[in-house]
Amino acid sequence: MLLFSRTLNAERICFQTESSIAAETFSMLFSRIFGVKPECKSAVRRSGTEMYTYDITSADTVSEVYRKYHFSDGIRTIDSGIIATNSLGVFAGGAFLACGSVNDPQKEYHLEFSVPEEELAAELAQLLEDIGVTAGRVVRRGQHIVYIKGSESIEDTLTFIGAQQCTLELMNVKIYKDVRNKANRIANCDSANIDKVVNAAMKQIEDIKLIASVSGLDSLSDDLKEVALLRLENTDMSLKEIGENLSEPLSRSGVNHRFQKLSKIADSLRAGGNINET
Prior knowledge:
The chain is of the alpha+beta class. Helices cover 55% and strands 14% of the residues. Among the domains are: 1-75, Roll (Endonuclease I-creI), CATH 3.10.28; 194-270, no CATH class.
């Protein structure tokens, strides 16, 4: 948390966070390790969020921090020796508490670390790479952003830093979104099929009414007249249902073939011709 804090130099250490939990954790750890309880100042920002700030300016305290963690003034680097004797996951968790954030998964899958220095950002990205998570990097408003896209990569990262409950919540959201998207696709497909059936039925009725008005349905053969009357009486029937209700049941393709014949007759009448069923 110290390494990824807002300011870290031989004169001053400044840790800032919008998270009350991160602020309390920093204060608790600092007090336990250095025997000094840092003073916290809070202020409400224009966005309405509260910013918690710990300013540590005591020369002795800053010097002790530098000595204990082998910091060098002007250089921020991950000390592999310190990590090796502790937990890499806990270290990454501290980095997240200091400068990390994760977006609402209902909107998008995005986790990022806002790192104050380029070299430190590169080392963090490599650390994530070592655990199998590919992270991108970009500069935004003077901060070096290490970001992770994709739900699985974010789940792996959250689990690695000890936020298993957040991982479970993210997985639940993903399952919900997948089910909702599948339901929407099915609904859209059903709607499209319904529209297709309705449009086809309207065209068939239009053809049949034209034939009836020009030549009369009695001018049709018995099989075409029967299917034409069924359609006029049952505008919402599918081709399969019409086939099942014929005096001699017919398959869907057979019914469709009869309607194609009726369509050709109607087209011929529109062109000024006569009924021709062939």
